[in-house]
Amino acid sequence: MNQLNDLAALIERNTGSDGLHETALPGLRLARYSAPSAPVHGLHKPAMCIIAGGRKQAMIGDRIIIYDKACYLVVTADLPVVSQVIEASAEAPYLCFAFDLNPAVLAAMVSAAGVIAPGDAPGGAPGPGLALSRSTPELLDAAIRLMRLLDTPGDLPFLAPLVEREILYRLLNGDQKDQARAIAVADSRLNQVNRAIGWIRRNYAQPFTIGRVAEEARMSTSALHEHFKAVTAMSPLQYQKQIRLQEARQLILGAGMDAATAGHEVGYDSPSQFSREYRRLFGAPPIADAARLRARPELMAEI
């Protein structure tokens, strides 16, 4: 508990206001919210997040995950997530330490250790793309030391890489070791799914066949369906729809496009179908949703 209090105090000191905050360390972001939030749609990148206060809910496809200050979570794929702070106050805010996962660094560490978990082999089944575990004293200690380095910027180039490697070491040897090591293994089922995800993200506006995505992932179509669902909690076509609608939302809000143009830009031939699916996902038709987001830009956050 003392370690969690220390980490919470350091996050508070380096944020001071609600929202997402970049730090002087590339790949380390902090989040603070002093009240429960509305649902936030975003794309969560591979990362490890340590919760130091409050409670949050994440919905991925048909999965709902609730986590609090006893937990850390590991995200191993680009996941469309609907997240919501469900417990926070001015006295006890939601606080999060978010650390990006670098596949190249993880691969180098796994290779140096000469260790591959059973699930890392090409035929091993991947786990969910977002998984939860209880934070350990060792992991919290490393996170605290990394945060303290923010107070001495001159030390960052020399000491931060050492602490960052320790955090990854704790991850590679903790409860989520199979997931973390699978990121590092080029031909793991997880990375085959990640190749499929990357292809869909690059080609989301175009129609595709499952066979084409399976070819890109170097999997059979049946294996793609099975493992894509295991990682993302949705099918490739459902994933494409999420990406299309999130991209359209950005075009309407950021580029000022009208709904019909934005829908066509992301691959919809029917404006009415686009409007229906947009409203189903975001809870309001495009124009009303854009007005709401302009009034409350925090609803576009990604953690």
Automatic annotation (TrEMBL):
Query: What keywords sit in the KW lines?
Result: DNA-binding, Transcription, Transcription regulation
Pfam families attached to this UniProt entry: AraC_N, HTH_18
What GO terms are given for molecular function? DNA-binding transcription factor activity; sequence-specific DNA binding
User: Does the keyword Transcription feature in the UniProt annotation?
Assistant: yes
Family matches, as InterPro entries: Homeodomain-like_sf, HTH_AraC, Tscrpt_reg_HTH_AraC_N
Keyword tRNA-binding appears in the UniProt entry: no
Occurrences of domain HTH araC/xylS-type (ranges): 194-292
Which PROSITE patterns has this protein been placed in? HTH_ARAC_FAMILY_2
Annotated PANTHER family:
ARAC-FAMILY TRANSCRIPTIONAL REGULATOR, TRANSCRIPTIONAL REGULATORY PROTEIN
- Annotated protein name in UniProt: AraC-like DNA-binding protein
Native organism is Sphingobium boeckii
